[in-house]
Design brief:
Strand order of the largest sheet: 8-9-7-6-12-13-14
Radius of gyration: 22 Å
Number of helices: 14
Number of strands: 14
Largest sheet: 7 strands, parallel
Distance between the termini: 52 Å
Shape: globular
Structural class: alpha/beta
Helix content: 25-40%
């Protein structure tokens, strides 16, 4: 197996060191080099040939935005994940980075960077494993599956908790094996192709309780790889699409309003961040706010959006399962459910429930998904009628709505 090669670009020597240590303590990836600004990063790319770049935004001489512009001009396709403290206060800058081709972003925690940066480690490893792995495979490298890296991240989270709580019990009492390099070689399980690779299962057969009807609403759930995937889908969506679209994109609070605005600039339909009490209008796209569930409330004249701070579902708020569950109850067989790229299983169970109620359903296919997690589980649970590639998703949604707008 070959490592995912990571290039870290940050003007802080401390941050370069901390990020590099996170990467290098994860088996299957390593820091191939560091750069103190975008200019040096560009100079190092031809020699180091990284599979992914972790990029700060605020840097001297050439900042992150300027680097992304130069990257685009030079035709560099190496994925970039933005990691910067400015992102929380400057959501518009973060969205500009995505518009310029960054794959995703993670916010540095506030406060002492040396003590709090470890809180984003799991998210960082997930992005490297997802985007870096995909690029490495394009270069015909043989690398570990995503689950191999996420198992290590899970182990590290348990270790961090036990240290903070002063617990001295060993990890095996938590029933978790430790595959990362901090464990001794004798304790580390050897990699085998079947140990972390998900076995493909035949989908469960769901028999809907009623025949699929005309489509009154589209509900979409998406996670890792979502920002750019949604940009592609909504840029090509039918401008005459006459049904509302409700979207759950896993994203931190403070970013979804700017994210909706960035989508609105490229989408022929109106896109906005959902607000509590919004009337659900045809031809409008509503993005669930970060840290709020979104549900549909039935009303006599016009159904209404409600936001909720209820418990996290599948580790997320907003949760695709919460949205799909609501749509299944209110619209039953008069809806289209769509599940796209993402880690984990959020949305899978309730997409299956939508299908059971007679709704139409789509899932993104494996080849075009950055992470074939959520759509895979939904497919296996019988919730997906048809798997569609990203480049055809907009046309597929538009066509199904057109064909079934009036029964």
């Amino acid at each position: 197996m070959e490592d995912i090669q990571v290039l870290v670009c940050d003007d802080s020597a401390l941050m370069r060191n901390l990020i590099s240590r996170m990467v290098d303590s994860t088996e299957g990836m390593h820091t191939v080099g560091t750069a103190m600004n975008g200019k040096f990063c560009l100079q190092k790319i031809p020699t180091l040939q990284p599979d992914i770049i972790i990029l700060d935004i605020e840097m001297p001489e050439m900042n992150g935005v300027e680097f992304l512009k130069a990257r685009k001009q030079q035709g560099i396709d190496i994925p970039v994940v933005v990691l910067s403290s400015i992102a929380t206060k400057g959501a518009s800058v973060t969205m500009e980075c995505l518009e310029l081709g960054a794959s995703d972003f993670i916010t540095k925690p506030s406060g002492s960077i040396s003590s709090n940066i470890t809180s984003v480690e799991s998210g960082l490893i997930e992005r490297i494993a997802s985007f870096g792995r995909r690029y490495a495979i394009k270069k015909h490298k043989e690398v570990y599956p995503v689950d191999f890296f996420m198992q290590q991240a899970k182990v590290k989270e348990v270790e961090t908790v036990t240290k903070k709580e002063g617990v001295t019990k060993k990890l095996d009492s938590a029933n978790i094996s430790s595959p990362h390099p901090s464990a001794s070689a004798s304790n580390r399980p050897a990699y085998t192709p079947t140990l972390f690779t998900q076995k493909k299962k035949e989908p469960v057969i769901i028999t809907p309780v009623r025949k699929s009807g005309p489509i009154d609403i589209v509900a979409l759930g998406i996670s890792t790889g979502g920002p750019n995937a949604l940009r592609e889908v909504f840029a090509k969506i039918d401008p005459k699409l006459s049904r509302p679209i409700l979207v759950v994109q896993h994203m931190p609070a403070g970013f979804t309003k700017e994210f909706a605005a960035s989508l609105d600039r490229i989408c022929p339909l109106n896109v906005k961040e959902a607000e509590d009490g919004d009337l659900i209008h045809p031809g409008q796209i509503y993005i669930a706010p970060g840290d709020s569930h979104i549900v549909v409330e039935k009303s006599t004249l016009c159904n209404v959006i409600r936001l909720s701070k209820a418990e996290l579902r599948n580790g997320h708020r907003p949760s695709a399962d919460v949205l799909f569950e609501s749509v299944a109850k209110v619209y039953q067989n008069r809806a289209l459910g769509v599940i796209m790229t993402g880690m984990g299983r959020d949305g899978a169970a309730q997409l299956a429930e939508m299908r059971k109620q007679g709704a139409w359903t789509l899932g993104q296919d494996e080849n075009s998904s950055i992470v074939y997690g959520m759509p895979r589980v939904a497919w296996e649970m019988g919730g997906v009628q048809k798997q569609v590639s990203l480049d055809k998703m907009a046309d597929e949604i538009s066509q199904i709505v057109r064909e079934h707008a009036n029964g």
